[in-house]
Amino acid sequence: VAIIMSVAVVHASPTTSSRGSMTDAIIQICAFLSAREQHATSVAQRFGMHLHDFGGNMNITFTPRDRRFSEGSANREWQSQAVASLDLTVAKDADLTIGELRKAFGTLRRADGEHYNDPPRFIAKIDRDPKTPLACILSVLVKGGFVDGEPDDHLRVERITIVPGPHLSATSSPSPGGR
């Protein structure tokens, strides 16, 4: 009896590996999204595996390649294949805090939900390269839901949304809607 073993070696690109900090991963994702208008399918393929494409205007859900995230969704613009946003849920054993995001991206502004009982999100702009066609808005939801006033640095982030959009002027405020 002969046993044949096959070993596959997968070399993950820096955008899909778990190396570096989580803020580095967010910067890499934003760099990909801001380089040019991307199709939701190509974004999901780049950052995920086990894709579930529901077609039409629906989202493409996936398992993120970076295991520090447990779920992902590439969301399409209305009546288009272009990506409107990328949602990533932070894995339970990963640690991403408001303090880390502040250190990497500066001020986080509070954006209240659309409904009175929606938890607030905190918004930052990622606009590092004016030569790229687009910039990004980072929107985060913290664990524990509601936070009064300014979020504490130790609060853990539950979910992030990255929205590609136009470059922001120095006086612009990011909005959760993105574009």
Task: Provide keyphrases for this structure.
alpha+beta; eight-stranded antiparallel β-sheet; disordered C terminus
Characterization of the model:
It is a single chain. By secondary structure, the chain is an alpha+beta fold. It is 17% helix and 30% strand. It has three helices and eight strands. It has helices at residues 22-35, 40-47, 98-105, and strands at residues 48-53, 60-64, 69-76, 83-90, 109-111, 121-126, 135-142, 157-165. An eight-stranded antiparallel sheet has the order 1-2-3-4-8-7-6-5, with helices on one face. A hairpin with a 6-residue loop joins strand 1 and strand 2. The longest helix is centred in the N-terminal third of the chain and has 14 residues, at 22-35. The protein is globular. The chain starts with 21 loop residues before the first helix and ends in a 14-residue tail after the last strand.
Number of DSSP-assigned strands: 8
Taking all residues together, what is the mean pLDDT?
79
Quaternary assembly: single chain
Neighbour order of strands in the largest sheet: 1-2-3-4-8-7-6-5
Label the overall shape. Answer: globular
How far is the N terminus from the C terminus? 62 Å
Structural class: alpha+beta
Low-confidence stretches: 1-17, 170-179
Strand content: 25-35%
How many whole angstroms does the radius of gyration measure?
17 Å
Q: State the helical fraction.
A: 10-25%
Helical segment count: 3
Element-by-element helix/strand order: HHEEEEHEEEE
Query: The biggest beta sheet, please?
Result: 8 strands, antiparallel
